[in-house]
## 1
Amino acid sequence: MPESFAPPARTLMGPGPSPVSPDVLAALARPTIGHLDPAFVDLMDETKGLLQETFLTQNRLTMPVSGPGTAGMEACVDNLVEPGTTVVVCRNGVFGDRLRQMVERAGGVAVVVDAEWGRAVPPETLADALVEHPEAEVVAFVHAETSTGALSDAETLARIARDHGCLVVADTVTSLGGVPVRVDDWGLDAVYSGTQKCLAAPPGLSPVTFSDRALERMDARETPVQSWFLDVSLVARYWNADGAKRAYHHTAPVNMIYALHEALRRLQGEGLEAAWARHRRMHRALAAGLDALGLAFVVPEAERLPQLNAVWIPDGVDDAATRRRLLDEHGLEIGGGLGDLAGRAWRIGLMGEGARPGPVLACLGALEAVLDRSGGVEAAEPLLDAVAA
C-alpha cells in the first residue's frame, strides 16, 4: 500500500496557486457535513455576503462556482452568449484568447481587439471596435492578464462598453483582493475570479457575480445554456439568489467552501484597502530587488500588475533549468512564460500570503544564488524595513 503523500515545503511565488495560511488549511480539515445541512446553508449565506463585500457589489447573484477560475469564465460566457451573439473580446494575452475561444464555442461571433502582449488594453481600440460593430451586445476583457502581468483600466473599458449598450464580462482572477475591483461602481455585469490567487485559498472555486442587467438577459434567452452544470439559473436556486426555496443542484465542495469562508473572513479583517496597499508595497520592494539583479520588467510601470511580476529572462540563462534549480535547491516556485512569452520571461507572483516580506526576501535570495548575482536582497530590505516600521 502506498504511503500517505507528504508534499514538500515550497515558497509559492508563481502565477498561482498562492501560499495558504494555516488558518485556512485548518478550515479545510474541519468535519464534512451535508451540503443541505442547515448549518452549512447558514455558512453559504455568510460566504455570499463576504463575496459581495470583496467584489464591492450588492448583486443578489454572487456565489462561488464549483471549479477553478476557468469554470467561472465559462459560466459568465455561456450564460450571456447565445448562437449569433456578437461579443467584442479584448485580447492582450493568453486568457483574453481563452475568452475568445469560449465565445466561439458558445456559438457567438467574436470580434477581437488585439493589444500588444505585456501592455494594457488601449481603451480607444475598444471604442473604435464598437463603432465598427454596432451589433455587439457584450464586451469581454481580462482586468489582470496573468500571462503577462498587465493591468488594464477596467473602469474605462466598462464605461465605453456601457455607452454602446453592451453588457460587460470581466476576468478578475488575478486582481480580486490584490488591486481595486469595484463591480457596482464600474458597472461590471458578469465577473469571475479564482480562490487560489489573492484570496489566498486553495484552488477549486471560482467566485462569480452577476448584475441585474445580466440576469435580465439570461431570463430572456431563446436557447438553453450549453452547459447544464454551469447554467447559472439552476445553480442560483441552490445559492438562494432570488429568495425562493433553496433547491438542490449538485453536491457542493463543502470543505472548500469552509476554506473560502475563512480566507474571505481574514481578508475582510485586514480590510480591502489595506490588502491592496500591502500588495503594492511588496511589489515595490520586489521590483527594487529585481532591478538590482538586472532583471527587466515586461510591462511598463504604469500598466503593471503588482501581484504578477513578469521579467525578461537574461541572455544566456536557461529558463527551465534555472526554474528547476530554484525549486530543487531553494524550494522556490516561480512561473515560466505562456504563449508569446514562453521561454522568454518569468512570472513571479506576489499574491495573498505570498505578498509578505519573508517570501519577497526568499525569492530574491534564491535568484541571487542561482543567477550568481548580488544586490537584490540589499535593495529590497530598506523598503521592507520601512513597512515594518
## 2
Amino acid sequence: MDLINCTRVTEFILLGFPHISGMNITLFIVVLLLYILSITGNGFIIVMVRVDRQLQKPMYFFLSNLSFLEIWYTTAVVPKMLANLLSSKTTICFHCCMAQCYFHFLFGITEFYILTVMSFDRYLAICKPLRYATIMTTNVCFQLALAAWFGGFCTILLQTTLVVRLPFCHSNIVNHFYCDIGPMLKIAGGHTDLIEALGFLIAVAVILTSLLLTVISYIFIISTILRIPSASGQKKAFSTCASHLTVVSILYGAVLFIYLRPSAAHSSFSLNKAISVLNTVITPVLNPFIYTIRNNEVKTAVRKVLQSEVTLRFPRS
C-alpha cells in the first residue's frame, strides 16, 4: 500500500488485556506497587554505589548502569500502562507510540550489552585476578559502558525509522499494552518483510551473540572455579557470579521466546503479553533483590549506612 490516497492514523489504541476486564483496579494497584518497588530498589543500588567507597569497583559500576537502565526500561512502558488501566480511552499519539517503541528497545538492547560486559568483568576477576586491576581501569569501565549505550542507540535506529515510514491507514488497534514492533507490523500497510527480516537479524546479532559471549565467559569461569582447591574458595568465587547468572537466565529465557522468531508479526500475542509483563514489570523488581540478597559487600554497605543514620538521629548522650 502506498501513502497516496491513504489517510494516516494520528493515534493508536492499545488493546491491553481485554480478557481481564473488571480487574483493572486490582491490576493497577499490583503494577503500581511493583513499579514503585522497581524504582526504589534500582535507585537504592545506584545511591549505595555512589556513597560507599567499598562498592566503587568495576562490578558495581556496571551494576549501577544496569539499575539505571532498568529504571528507564520500565518507565518507558509502565506509566502509560497504568494510565490506560484507569481510563476507558487507551490511546497513544502516533509519535508518542514510535518514541515508546524506540526507547523500549534502546534500553532493552543496551541491557544485553551491559550484561555481556558484566560477564567479561567476572571472567577477568576470577580467571585473571593478577591482571584484573590493570585491565579494568576507570577509563576502560567508562569506555565499555559508553560503548554499550551507543550500541543500543544505533542498533534499533534503522528498524524504528523504517517502522515510522510505514503507512498505517486502515487499523490503529495495537494488540498489546505498549507499542511493540510485532503487533504494529501486523496492522501496517505496505511491505513489512524487510522490517521483519531486519528485526530477526537484530535479535540474532544482539541476543545470540551476547548470549554466546556470556556462555563462553562462564565456561572459563566455571573451569577456573573447579580448579580452586578449597570448597570455601569455590563457594566464594561462585557467589560473585551467581546473581549475574540468575538475571541472565531470566532475561534471555523470556526474550528468546518473544523475539527470536522469523515471523513475529503474524503470531498470537496472548502469551507474548504475559511474558512481556514479566520482562517490563516483574524482572526490574527482582534484579535489585537478586543482586543484594546474596552479596555480602552490598549488605555490609547497607548496614553501615543504616548505622550511621541511626547514630545521626539518636546520638549517644
